[in-house]
Design brief:
about 325 residues; six-stranded mixed sheet; 10 helices; 17 strands
């Protein structure tokens, strides 16, 4: 009896890339299914953009291969015109041609029917921009036009390299809506690179953490946030507390969990007499919550709470059951 096995949309297998004597990427492996949202996190220089460009067929790997729907993607050393017809790569440093109207730029790249193209314009929220000159667009408008230019080539996979960089809060919010609609209404699968933890944690099905060209952790946003493998991974997704031996002595359950880092929202704080005594040093109002810095013996902890506590006084802290409620990110 043969059991049908669904083919993966994308398979990255043993991909490495060197620059002189050092590795930009080393033995990268992961699989992406159709409609699966994968985010790639890492500091500047960790290899994120290089990986996206290899997947897009714009950079030749030194080792390994990338399969798209079971077929190997050829690099620029193997093709006269680099790239893949069903993979669109949107760089953070994209440029729109000057002295063209938006509708002219779109007509040049369009591979869709009129109705399909109009749907793309609607999803990207550029219907009202098509008569404008490219030089007249704001940064957020230019970004949405660039999205439309990528999508009217009819890709199945869209690679987004820091799409929210240099955008204000309003345009970031609009662009997040656009990306959600791209997936739902146009059935395009996305890989997203961003340095902002909120962008990644609220969007991804799986997060891949890169450090110096190596994958150091893969997992769900919840696992990556709550159980980072090291301090580097912890630092990418907001503030954290290091679990020193003194903290384990105060909260013995940590010895069983073997947790190395605790997020500020892993603690509860009150000014009653229930918990471990702490000295309050700083209280910062963060809008929807308060960030409190306390000292327990020789250890400083950062704790978030939704209620005001008095500064320069005493408080009592507890470790929440599960330690995963009420996530707050900086």
């Amino acid at each position: 009896m043969h059991i049908f096995q669904r083919m993966s949309l994308l398979t990255v297998s043993g991909v490495s890339k060197k620059q002189k004597e050092s590795y930009l990427l080393k033995n990268i492996n992961f699989v992406q299914q159709d409609a699966q949202k994968i985010a790639i996190a890492g500091e500047t220089g960790s290899g994120k953009s290089t990986l996206l460009r290899i997947i897009a067929g714009l950079v030749q790997p030194d080792a390994g291969e990338v399969l798209f729907e079971g077929t190997r993607i050829k690099g620029p050393l193997e093709k006269l015109l680099p790239g893949h017809s069903q993979i669109a790569y949107l760089s953070q440093s994209f440029e729109l041609r000057n002295n063209y109207r938006v509708e002219e730029l779109l007509q040049i790249a369009n591979k869709l029917s009129l109705n399909e193209a109009m749907l793309v314009y609607s999803v990207c929220k550029i219907d009202h921009l098509v008569k404008r000159w490219s030089r007249e667009l704001s940064g957020g408008e230019r970004q949405r036009v660039a999205f439309a230019l990528a999508l009217i080539s009819a890709p199945k996979l869209l690679l987004l390299d820091e799409p929210f960089s240099n955008l204000d809060a309003i345009h970031r919010s609009i662009l997040k809506t656009v990306i959600a609609d791209i997936e739902q209404r146009l059935n395009v699968t996305c890989i997203l690179v961003s340095h902002d933890p909120v962008d990644l944690l609220s969007w991804a099905d799986e997060i891949i953490v890169l450090h110096k060209g190596n994958i150091i952790q893969k997992g769900t946003p919840r696992d990556i946030y709550c159980y980072p493998v090291n301090e580097y991974a912890a630092s990418l997704f907001g503030k954290y507390n290091v679990v020193f031996p003194q903290i384990v002595q105060l909260f013995p359950q940590l010895a069983k969990e073997k947790r190395r880092f605790l997020r500020p929202n892993d603690f509860a704080i009150n000014q009653c007499t229930n918990g471990i005594k702490a000295e309050i040093e700083i209280v910062n109002f963060m809008g929807t919550y308060y960030e409190v810095e306390v000292r327990v013996d020789d250890c400083k902890l950062i704790i978030t709470t939704d209620h005001l506590v008095s500064t320069n006084g005493q408080a009592f802290i507890q470790l929440k059951a599960g330690g995963e409620q009420g996530q707050h990110l900086e």
